From TrEMBL, chain A:
UniProt KW Cell membrane keyword: yes
Keywords from the UniProt entry: Amino-acid transport, Cell membrane, Membrane, Transmembrane, Transmembrane helix, Transport
One GO term of the biological process aspect: amino acid transport
Domain of life per record: Bacteria
Protein name: Ectoine/hydroxyectoine ABC transporter permease subunit EhuC
Example GO molecular function: transmembrane transporter activity
From TrEMBL, chain B:
Signal peptide span: none
Organism annotation: Paenibacillus paeoniae
Protein name: Ectoine/hydroxyectoine ABC transporter permease subunit EhuD
CDD domains (UniProt xref): TM_PBP2
Transmembrane parts of this sequence: 20-41, 80-99, 189-208
Domain ABC transmembrane type-1: 18-207
Molecular function GO terms recorded: transmembrane transporter activity
Length: 216, 220
């Protein structure tokens, strides 16, 4: 049995690498959109606020798998053809980014009013106020929900199986075709690998959280 | 690129698949609510071992993708134990189990928000464990978290396209089948996307009304 698993591992590792890659790339897109939309929703400019709310509401209401299908299969008809990787990164990043936007907004709104008033009293410019006073405190508050969001993102990458990208789930399905009688072991192993990957996200987030709140 | 005639035809076909998606979501939601309550109760058990096992299992389920769990339930469970479930029930149970771990957190926030005096008063009145839970704790803990539960119904509904992987014909698989017959993909997938956005926005309006009615909302 151990020997057979040893034969599978190279394929699964190859798939795991694709999963990690998609997670990291969509993570960058998601964090960027989360910051932009979270800050945009608090902007004093009405059009910016509308744009940010519109993005958040629309992409939170959309179903991720349908969005992925739409980006990969329908968008080329409209003239925009993206590779599998970029379709996946764009769909997952935009969807998760909308959830992240709400996290950013609520973390910034949770900062006590006194911090704004003190910054104004110290004659800090709005940019410095945001960058050196509000955001450092808000990021500490964002950390736990963002950590959960990254795990949601890791789980969401399994959906790229539908557009036949060779991620972890896809590799496991191929193995299943070749070793049909071992199906339960393959899927058990697959669940375990996802669990380990999720733990790899949770552990550093916890460490960072402890480190950033050490002064309290 | 966009043909209105075809869009109209395909809309009718797709809307006929909407009840299937809603039914799967509703069944998944009922299972998630029930199992979630059970997990929340087990995590508060007197026995440390029960607490530990319940929270580890919940953590494991929450950390792994629904898609893989569905594959496990649909393709390998029948090889391990002599049961075979239809795609619908596998999907409903998979959705239910996955989101029960989220739902247990929702219940937990509701139960934790309850003042300690309520538990103490129940003990002082010599109420049994069962009466404490069903007559004192739950009637006060659940109403404030109903809007959050409603939000999870929306989340579950948006996850139903994943059931297409285990051959359950809901909106997305219907659209895919339609596209494979006509070779036109733009209209079916766009319409499915619109149906999901409209349905979830309508459901979240309902949840907002629920929230207004039940007032305070404990922080999750």
């Amino acid at each position: 049995m151990i020997q057979v698993i040893g034969q599978w591992l190279p394929y699964l590792m190859q798939g795991a690498w694709v999963t990690v890659k998609i997670t990291l790339l969509s993570g960058v897109v998601a964090m960027l959109f989360a910051m932009l939309s979270g800050l945009g929703k608090l902007s004093s400019l009405t059009p910016v606020r509308w744009l940010a709310s519109g993005y958040i509401e629309l992409f939170r209401a959309a179903s991720l798998l349908v969005l992925l299908f739409w980006v990969y299969f329908a968008l080329p008809i409209a003239g925009l053809e993206l590779s599998k990787t970029w379709s996946a990164v764009l769909a997952i990043g935009l969807n998760i980014g909308a959830y992240g936007g709400e996290i950013v907004r609520s973390a910034i709104q949770a900062i006590p009013k006194g911090q704004y008033e003190a910054s104004i009293a110290l004659n800090l410019s709005p940019l410095t106020r945001m960058r050196s006073v509000i955001l450092p405190q808000a990021i500490v508050r964002m950390l736990p929900p963002m950590g959960n969001l990254w795990i949601e993102m890791l789980k969401a990458t399994s959906l790229v199986y539908f557009i036949t990208m060779a991620d972890l789930t896809y590799e496991a399905m191929i193995l299943r075709n070749n070793y049909y009688t071992d199906t339960p072991i393959i899927f058990g192993l697959l669940l375990l690998i996802y669990y380990v990957l999720a733990s790899c996200i949770a552990a550093p987030v916890k460490w960072l959280e402890r480190k950033l709140t050490a002064w309290r | 690129m966009w043909s209105w005639d075809y869009a109209m035809d395909v809309s009718v076909i797709l809307l006929r698949a909407l009840p299937a998606a809603l039914l799967a979501a509703a069944c998944g939601f009922v299972i998630a609510s029930t199992v979630g309550l059970l997990i929340a109760a087990l995590i508060r058990s007197r026995f440390a071992s029960v607490r530990r096992v319940a929270s580890s299992v919940a953590h494991f389920i929450r950390s792994t993708p629904l898609l893989v769990q569905l594959f496990f339930l649909y393709y390998s469970l029948p090889m391990l134990v002599p049961v075979s479930m239809t795609a619908f029930w596998t999907g409903a149970i998979g959705l239910g189990l996955h989101y029960s771990t989220y739902m247990s957190e929702v219940y937990r926030s509701g139960i934790d928000a309850l003042p300690k005096g309520q538990w103490e008063a129940a003990t002082a009145l010599n109420l049994s464990k069962r009466r404490t839970w069903f007559s004192i704790v739950l009637p006060q803990a659940i109403p404030p978290v109903l809007p959050i539960m409603g939000n999870y119904l929306i989340v579950i509904f948006k996850e139903t396209p994943t059931l297409s992987a285990i051959t359950y014909v809901e909106l997305l698989l219907r659209a895919k089948n339609e596209a494979s017959v006509t070779y036109r993909v733009f209209e079916p997938f766009t319409i499915v996307g619109i149906i999901f956005i409209v349905c979830s926005l309508m459901m979240s309006l309902l949840v907002a009304r629920l929230e207004k009615r039940w007032g305070r909302r404990p922080s999750a």
